[in-house]
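Explain this record to help learners:
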Amino acid sequence: MNRRPSPSLIAARQWEIKRRYERHAKVGKRTRSMAAIRLAELTRWLHDTYGQGVELEPGPDAVRIAEIFAHHIAGLANAERRITQWLAFYAPSIPPRDQERLIANAQGKPIHWSADKLAWKISLRDEQRTRLKITTIGAVDCTKEQRAARQRERRAQAERNRRAKARVPTI
């Protein structure tokens, strides 16, 4: 004979289920924020362009790249601490006063660049974009329409391959 669980046990089980679902909450199909995804792709670009873990040379390029990263990091939790750590590791040549201004600007009103505009800012070419598997940033030598057409063709080819494989009779 099965006994009905006590109300406190039911409540405890419901709480545990709710906690598990909240921990695995997703935004659409993504499990990470767009800022985190783009930041990972920007880091791949930075390491490929300038070298793994290399400090940026002092100058306007370092400030421009630091600004781009700061505005993307601003979309994450603990942004001020993360931006400070990023600057200390990649761009320690930026003076503290400029670092504070950069952090304040990024946190106050973060800039959200479109894929193509960001590609122009970092001069990302299609060959490098494809090789590094960057999907959220455009390319300076390939328009959005060209990338969409290429993606449609890839998907159509994959679908043709899948159907052909399903059609082959097994012996």
